[in-house]
Amino acid sequence: MNKKTIILISPPPITTDWEPKKVLSGSPGVRMGLLSIGSVLSQHGYSVKILDGILGKVDLASELHQIRPQETLFVGISSMTAQLPSAVKAATIIREQHPSLPIIWGGVHATLFPEETCSDSLADIVVIGEGEYTCLELTEALSGIRDLHSIKGIVYKNGDGKTIFTGNRSHHDLNALPFPKYELFHLDDYLYRAIIDREDIKNRKFGKMLSIHSGMGCPYQCTFCINTTVYRDGKYYTRSPYRGKSAVRLLDEIEVLLKKYNVDFIDFIDENFLVDKSRFFQFLDGIEERRLTFTWFAGSRANYFNPGYLTHDVIARASALGCVMMGIGAESGSQRILDFLKKGITVEQIEYAASALNKHRIVSEFSFMIGLPHETPDDMLKTIRFVKKLRTIGPYVGTQSPQLYRPIPGGELYDECVKLGFAAPKGIREWTSEKLQISGYLHLDKLPWINRDNKTIVIIRYVTGILSTMKFRWWLIDKTGSFFLKNFLLHVVNMVFLLRERMDFWKFPVEYTCFERLQRFKKYYHRVR
Fold this sequence. Notes:
GO terms for molecular function: 4 iron, 4 sulfur cluster binding; catalytic activity; cobalamin binding; metal ion binding. By secondary structure, the protein is of the alpha/beta class.
């Protein structure tokens, strides 16, 4: 066992409130990227400590102040763009207390902007892309037994403070990774969750749930997606449209979760779990052959529901073998916008997928966006109508909260946002909590392509504040008295919106002002109680 510890941090969302929070039934699961890196390091004898700020339970500030540099090899920070304010805050604490302790950055944002990130005094080294074996090699370099420049896939500062890129790194075989060492996390904080009960989908059922990381990348061309950047050939990247673990490897991992942790539900972390048709059928065959009993969630695409792939027979079989939920990126109810996003699907395919899954009692969860560049109010209204149409198909059709589009780096749509006047922050410190709202959403006044007319603003407020809270993950809702009051108010505002739409009247949005004030009062009440 190597004597020094490696500390891996996933910072909290952009909020600067680092007070430990209660773990809720809908809290996020294990940080799979850090779990994978930590498992590789543990396999090679290193002591690993993971600080999960996203869960919110850890007192991150206290943990950072307790770091002992003589016992720590390096601190790794994995951050998406929306986590940058907290990531900068964490790195600042470490740098001020221990100036010579190496700070290594990784994750989505650092991967997209490696030299820009490394140029900051809060970063010594940046890991580009998947960091399992890069971090392992960095432990050797920081232990003085290999040259830093020999490690591919990193950016570091030389003695003159100049950033050095070491060249592209080949992608590793996911099947060669060690089995995840879930014990690196305090599992009692992650295992017990409200899960889907298809016999009573509107009420809570508690069980044990863990995730399996099953694949990386995606072969499609969606303009808003990071995969179109980091898994295509470029200065920092090596082409890899999709790489997945084999069906045998997945089934082996599932057996471990069933026998060791007695899980009820498995969430497959994968941009496109069903992209490999052969693997999916081998996966279903393996569940039958091994007589495995568990329920599971996977991501799919609407265009897979066709006579050549996801037929009613295949869907029925998946349902019988434990599939209780599928997530599908719908994005818009306007075909013009779908084509603009290069989504490669049609509204008819989305509707058909919803009907097919509902028929076989698989919950479909569709994601949508609004406030996109070049999206008109009529396009937005088409999305609203389409969301409502999907919800009438049946009880197993649900939609995620329609999101206000976030101009987060990655994909050609971000470049289009910059052309339209979006003031792209430079450097990790400019993505501040003043510019980002919780979870990375920006204030409307930061999105220059959105018109400020009453119609556009009322529609966006309706979608993100009212429509977003209706028929979404029913099994997570704690049905208290306040829930029924809020539900009543939501339906009142919904009826007012229908009248506005019918009359094409968008002035004096007093209903939103009242609703938002009630929301603020509720937050204040819970804070001071």
